[in-house]
Write a structure and sequence with these properties.
The chain has about 475 residues and is of the alpha/beta class. Helices cover about 30% and strands about 20% of the residues. The longest helix has 26 residues. It comes from Larkinella knui.
């Protein structure tokens, strides 16, 4: 059995791993878009494949099956290109992962279409040449439909046989609705070998979601390491944190709170928390706007899959009839409605994508309020270097938005209580369900190199002697 690391190797995004059995059965685990500008390859900076690009370092038609841990684009974003390059097999994932992946890929395809259309209007020869390349790299709605027609929904904790010598089990991972750890058992030459791909490991007591479940003993473990070198900063509950910032921003003064938030997962956790604040803690019904069509569709998926949420969410739904709808809450579906919020002169909360404040409707809300001293911008997620969110967090006195330099008079705060990733202690807890004597090797992926290195040292101190940090393209015989 051979395992090759084609993504998320010494970097965070682009998860993609190829497992090949001795009888040439080829399993691709995740097929994510590489969102990083550069990847670390063999210790050196090297240009990575283009984001959501069509390049694969293997022949797509030779893959037998794809297993998808969860819907996020850095795990699913290259699936349409895989089909475009000749893959004809199935995608196995949980039913919520199918629904959320379909939404995310359709959204990406729509953006790709818009981008190509704008480039097609240009008369510049340089742009026209680039357009030819982009048309080969960017998928459209047709490729998304083809991909999603081949999805086979898999239930949690039910063994699914791929062939005479291979079976797979999806185990709840927290992190996002439908997310899974994937355990694969392979029999070769009469010997059983087991391998687990962690996907992204959720944190305990997260709004709406159940805790990540432990996995059975395995021989090999591929483990994410996003928070491998740190703990979550904020130890208070999401309700307590949000109550404090709302009181300071919208109750003590007639201000507005802008929360850049990813539409899938993070926004649903926010809305549920706000609902509980209003119904259980007697907060005045301050107007709340959710400004993301994708968030609206994603929320419908969460509401449809109540059976897969945690006990608290189910009990709240039974008592209050809705997890996400409450007094003075409004979805902004049109661009016109989004722009008109700038004229709303009462205290309010605006939740809008993207989470990094880079593109999306949130950019216009930040631009309209960046010089408003009665506004607070609450960053609740990771912001990549160079994004508008990153620049805000670095305390720049002025910010350039849409080619206009604006003084930063709004307050900028951050919290990680809504982070869907487990921290270092959560990751250690996940690995320690394994026996150091039985576990032959741990491979760390999906993290910055500093995070991986620190987590490698932590695991060595915990008694796990064989911890590898694979590089992109590195292959291991298992």
């Amino acid at each position: 059995m051979k395992l090759t690391f084609w993504g998320a190797a010494r970097q965070v995004t682009g998860s993609m791993f190829l497992l090949e059995t001795d009888d040439n059965y080829r399993i691709l685990i995740d097929c994510g878009a590489d969102m990083d500008k550069k990847a670390v390859l063999n210790g050196h900076d090297d240009e990575s494949p283009k984001s959501i690009g069509g390049y694969f370092p293997f022949e797509a038609s030779t893959i037998n099956v794809v297993l998808l841990t969860h819907a996020h684009i850095d795990h699913s974003g290259n699936l349409p290109n895989l089909y475009r390059e000749g893959y004809e097999g199935q995608i196995l994932c949980t039913d919520p992962t199918y629904s959320l992946t379909n939404l995310l890929l359709q959204d990406a395809a729509s953006l790709n279409h818009r981008r190509l259309s704008e480039m097609g209007k240009s008369k510049k020869q340089k742009v026209k040449k680039k357009l030819v390349t982009m048309q080969k790299d960017l998928f459209l709605e047709k490729q998304v439909r083809e991909s999603m027609e081949n999805v086979v929904p898999i239930q949690y904790n039910r063994k699914f046989r791929l062939g005479d010598s291979v079976d797979v089990t999806f185990i709840p991972a927290g992190h996002l609705l439908g997310a899974a750890h994937i355990v694969i058992n392979v029999v070769e030459n009469g010997e059983k070998k087991s391998i687990c791909f962690s996907g992204d490991i959720g944190r305990r007591n997260y709004p709406l979601l159940g805790d990540p479940e432990p996995i059975p003993p395995v021989d090999y473990l591929i483990c994410e390491s996003t928070y491998g070198n740190r703990l979550h900063i904020d130890s208070e509950t999401p309700e307590a944190m949000l109550a404090d910032v709302i009181k300071r921003t919208c109750i003590d003064i007639p201000g507005r709170l802008i929360i850049p938030s990813f539409s899938v997962g993070r926004t649903q956790a926010l809305l549920y928390t706000l609902n509980r604040l209003y119904t259980e803690q007697g907060f005045p019904p301050i107007k709340v706007f959710s400004d993301s069509p994708l968030a609206l569709e994603s929320t419908k998926v969460y509401q449809k899959n109540l059976r897969m949420l945690n006990k608290e969410a189910k009990a709240y739904q039974e008592e209050n009839a809705s997890l996400f709808d409450f007094v003075n809450f409004e979805y902004l579906e049109s661009s016109k409605a989004s722009r008109e919020v700038s004229n709303y002169n009462q205290p309010c909360i605006i939740i809008s994508s993207s989470g990094m404040v880079q593109g999306g409707r949130v950019e216009q809300h930040v631009a309209a309020n960046i010089s408003n001293p009665y506004c607070t911008i609450l960053i609740i997620g990771y912001c990549a270097e160079g994004t508008l969110g990153w620049r805000l967090l670095n305390g720049q006195p002025t910010i350039s938005i849409k080619d206009k330099e604006e003084p930063v008079l709004a307050k900028v705060e951050r919290t990680d209580v809504f982070s869907g990733h487990g921290d270092r202690d959560d990751l250690v807890r996940f690995v320690k369900h394994q026996s150091p004597e039985k576990l032959k090797k741990v491979f760390l992926v999906h993290g910055e190199f500093t995070s991986m290195s620190a987590f490698q040292q932590t695991l060595l101190e915990e008694g796990f002697p064989n911890v590898e940090l694979p590089t992109k393209g590195q292959m291991y015989e298992l």
